Fold each of these.
Amino acid sequence: MKRDLDKVRNIGISAHIDSGKTTLTERILFYTQRIHAIHEVRGKDGVGATMDSMELERERGITIQSAATYCNWKDHDINIIDTPGHVDFTIEVERALRVLDGAVLILCSVGGVQSQSITVNRQMTRYKVPRIAFINKCDRTGANPPRVTQQLRDKLGLNAVMVQLPIGLESDLEGIVDLVIMKAVYFDGDQGEKLRFEDIPENMKAEAEEKREVLLDAVSMFSDELMEVMLEEKIPSAEMIREAIRRGTLSLEFTPVMIGSAYKNKGVQLLLDAVNDYLPCPTDVENTALDLNNAETEQLVTNNPADPLVALAFKLEDGRYGQLTYVRTYQGVIKKGDAIINTRTGKKVKIGRLVRMHADQMEEIEEAGAGDIIALFGVDCASGDTFCDDKINLSMSSMHIPEPVISLAIKPVDNKAQVNMSKALNRFGKEDPTFKTFVDHETNETIISGMGELHLEVYIERMKREYKAEVEVGAPRVAYRETINQRAEFNYSHKKQTGGSGQFGRVGGYMEPLEEGEYEFVDAIVGGVIPREYIPSCDKGFRKSLEKGTLTGSPITGVRVVINDGSYHAVDSSDIAFQLAAIGAFKEGYAKASPVIKEPIMKVAVEGPSEFQGAIMGSINQRRGVIVGTFEEGNYTVVEAEVPLAEMFGYSTVLRSLTQGKAEFTMEFSSYKQVPKSVSEELIKAYQEEKKNK
Amino acid sequence: MGYEPLANKNPLRVLKIGQESTSEMGLVMARPGLGKTALLVQIALDSILLGNRVIHISIGETIDKTRAWYDDILRYILQEESVSKPHELIDMVQRHRMIMTFKESAFNRPRLEERLNDMIMQDIFKPNCLVIDGFDFESTDRGTLEEIKEMAETMSLQVWFSAVCHREDKRVSSMGIPAPCHEVDDLFDTVILLKPDGKKIRLDIIKHKGKAPETGVDLDLDPTTMMIKKG
């Protein structure tokens, strides 16, 4: 089976919450005849959308895990990754973007460019993903595609130009004018499956001509041929215009804007055409890998099936038959029965089964060529691992992984749950690098940490449903940190005489604040007052001290420790003696270095009708938030603020009741900042109490 | 606050703005692209360093872009002057500044007043100074400006506007203030005109606190750094 790479598209669909990503994907699958009935996200038939395969996703009506699917439209193979919209699941979005060649950015025709669209757009820019915009929900009251297009230009800085016009809006949405072919398109049949091309209605001709001019103007700079035709005042062919749009899109300098309503079955087929026409095939984009044999120098991957294999595992799923690994191949061919090497572990694995995924149904295949997205069975790996054959040793560049900001203590209800819980946690940790788990040795509690309340909630639900692990959940806890504010000296001797060999070590030096980075150890010992072999012991002792600060038991960051003095004993000094001396020295210095607590500050954006601006700002002010700015447009307003995460618990409920449910908010981690004195005192007191009660 | 020494190094200090708590109306005029926003941001930062709270109103701009102006200019100040705890200064500036951006069509005087009252009443942010960038003088009548002046007086606010003038438009007031502000020049206490002068941009102070400017006040805007310098 030889595949023509020109006819492969790996695309993603991503957008703000509730812009209708999943609904759109459902329509695409229907029109490409992958599924034979349309189920709505919150449909009455109780089936749920095909892509929302997790029970929990169907229940909440949101997509949590990105699902991969495959379809065929007009001879092109399209791999689609339906990505989640909630900011807590950003890592899923980022991962998906890494393996995509192009993307469809969905926007709501009423809400326009919302905060999540901005985040997603930034990620797409980071990974240089060409995109087309699709303004969905044009059937909704208040739909205004030109306004959304303007927002794409203003807020996202995209060179966005409409390539279509709606015929009627809101409930009168009848069809779409295609400005490339200058025809009106109507969608007939029960599910809009029959396309009818007609002349543009009389009353829209002038507008269509005008908008076509705008479009041609914008894209002519990408094609000399088109420019020439226009200068000669001839009418350019549709192919010529498409070619120009494609070039502009691929260079990331142009974003075609499509419109429609997935729910009302309008415009989806045209969007599929656009995916084929404007988005890149695997050979159009450059992907780089790091050569592990050659000091991690960057190297372009070739997309050539004849070259050695390079493939990236970007997603793991625990299915009924063991671990399912989603893989994107960048060059070479992956075949059933092949032995491939995981470059992270150096282990050789054999491919038992190779499948093409369609949400949770699958199709067995024999081999897959470069540029494809497929899934492997029974291959043990973590997500982000690269597979190669034995001739080369490449790793796809590492992915950007944010630090978790919130944690929860969980306790299994019984023994059986205990076993299942550890299985589940092990699995989740592999699936999602932003989900971390560890055991607090002092309290013997299991702590899970992640990117937000919902993020952790979902994992707890999954533990219950998929692993039958019932757990008791503690209150969410903010991941505080401690740091120091000034330089302080230390000079500490550790002595122990217990008969037999004793322990002795003395460590002197100072610690000071480190502006960037977490910890730095400087060895300024001269004259061997601490023997070489014990220097790493000191470092180890300091590192141990950093794990738990004395104020709230949080990790300490931003410290440089310099040792410049010390003494040893020929018999009594040992590794452990110097470790303990370093711990003691750190304690001594830390107390004098004016330690402070830092807390995660979130960048919060609240969007809603202008009439509630006062109430929204009030609610942020009450939460120790600093309002960065406000933006008003028409009757719609956005308040941007920086608010401590600790104050954001339960904010969604408060916001809902303040604004009659008309406002929504998103937040993402911004930075760590020192907590104010009053709060800091409370935190320290609470920690002391807690310690006493143990 | 402890930032007065830093504030005193600011060349703008010779204008003695932002010190008294009386209301005042200021105007920065220039042809497009000469650095009106840069000057306004430096006026705002000057006021913040003196311990005032500033609302920066940007009409037709985004929050991020406006914020970037402050970040850039603050970064430059931190590069030039040694500040013992730069993070504290950055934090302080953020707490004393608020950005309000409006789509051109969404900005009007009643709405502005409503927003300000909202914030003052709820004790969210009580400004001493208002900077309004991108105000459309072409299509504003005298009445609106008088109302803003009145509002500034009741709230004892310093208000600074920016206005764009054009080379082709030759209209000019008796004081030498060009269109579109030539008919409302009496409403402003201080008016600064930015004028290209060889490789520099000169601050032409037409009016200073209601009077003709004192002599010896000579300021430039460096076009590469966009910073105000003594001439």
Amino acid sequence: MLFFRSEEQVRSWCAARGDPMRPLVRIDQLWALATTWYSTRLQADSRRPKPEEMRSIFAGLGLEGDFWDPRSDTFGRHKEGPS
Amino acid sequence: MDFDTQIKLAIYTHFAETGRRPSLEDVASRVVSDAGRVRDAYGRLRQQRVLVLESDGTTIRMAPPFSGIPTQHLVKVGGIDYFANCAWDSLGVPAALHRPAEVLSRCEQTGEPLRLEVGLDGPGPSTWLFHCLVPAAKWWEDIVFT
């Protein structure tokens, strides 16, 4: 989970590693994720979001699709067709 | 409050107050318990994904968003330096502390320094981006790599 100056830099970094480029997240979206995950972390009753909550949180920020689905077991295999 | 919650709060309070990971003895002292019981609680908290431990089972590698070791993601809050585990966690530190912060990191491709001023309502407008290689379903298969 890394910072990049621009989409072009992400593309270059992924190409150099031979890795696929993943969905990009803006800083304002990242702040929303950070506060959702951590704003109660120093409290006794804090807890991590459950998978179904995570999916809803991501969708609320426009982060949708299998990449953001914590229960997906098919990410990256769509082009192979049903198994 | 149950014992594991006391342990969790002791760990996080130590990080928040010092910017550094507590030792097993630090935590035992805070909760007035013995190291063996604290070690057992560490294992349970690891199962709950509250902690990431080194291979010795007693040294804290991560108590997200805090990192137990120096990283490229430095967060300055009120005169204390904190290390975050990743870009996400670098914003998680001021979110957890509810305090303004300065986040210092870099572009992973070019090394260009990133400096983000984070207020209580978050960072100001920025064109920088966040990218994660690992899909959400696999984050905890190797959380250190993620």
